[in-house]
Write a structure and sequence with these properties.
InterPro entries: AA_synth_put (IPR009569), BB2672 (IPR035936). By secondary structure, the protein is an alpha+beta fold. The protein contains 3 helices and 7 strands.
């Protein structure tokens, strides 16, 4: 398989202190990172694309490490998600190649004993400047409503037709003023990644 050719990396950290109510004691922090890479399959149909997942693993680890550092360490990460925007010369299936390298990288660096929940994801084919809402769920239990969120991600000059924009997101807690009920983080049983 070809080498992973990175054109650019983009990252962002957001802190929210309140959503109209009282100021929180600590902000809710959401971070994302995007790697814009060359799509080696753009402009043609390739039946055997799976080997490229292996090539993407080091990139996933690099991106997850940078996110964890932005948030202040693996021990503070409570939510995660992943996504991909594939340039117009590619196909949606190329975005599926990010599932394992992106998700497993976050789970490995956060700690597999802490990250039993499936990493939610989304993908699409889009033009330059396309935006993507990347879903977020709790790292231990997908049913924890206080951690349901999405982070809008995009880059003004990506992805070009022959590129992929690969995305990881992490958060450090519940939404500010979370009060929608349901399973609370303190009630997680930790048996199946759901509850």
């Amino acid at each position: 398989m070809p080498d992973v050719k990175i054109r650019k990396m983009v990252e962002s950290l957001e802190e929210t202190w309140h959503e109209g109510g009282a100021r929180a004691e600590k902000p809710y922090r959401r971070a994302w990172i995007m790697a814009v890479i060359e799509n080696p399959f753009a402009g043609r149909y390739e039946p055997d694309i799976q080997p490229f997942m292996e090539d993407l693993k080091p990139l996933g680890l690099k991106m997850a490490g940078r996110l964890i550092k932005m948030l202040g360490g693996a021990e503070v990460v409570e939510g995660y998600g992943k996504g991909a925007i594939i340039g117009a010369g590619g196909e949606i299936e190329h975005g599926a190649l990010w599932h394992a390298p992106g998700g497993y990288a976050m789970r490995e660096l956060i700690g597999r004993e802490r990250s039993a929940a499936i990493v939610p994801s989304t993908k699409k084919v889009g033009g330059v400047g396309a935006r993507l809402d990347v879903p977020v769920t709790h790292i231990q239990a997908s049913y924890v409503r206080s951690h349901f969120d999405s982070i809008e991600v995009g880059c003004n000059d990506a992805p070009r037709a022959d590129e992929m924009a690969l995305i990881l997101v992490m958060t450090d807690g519940a939404r500010v003023h979370s009060r929608a009920g349901g399973l609370e983080a303190s009630q997680i049983e930790g048996k199946d990644g759901l509850r």
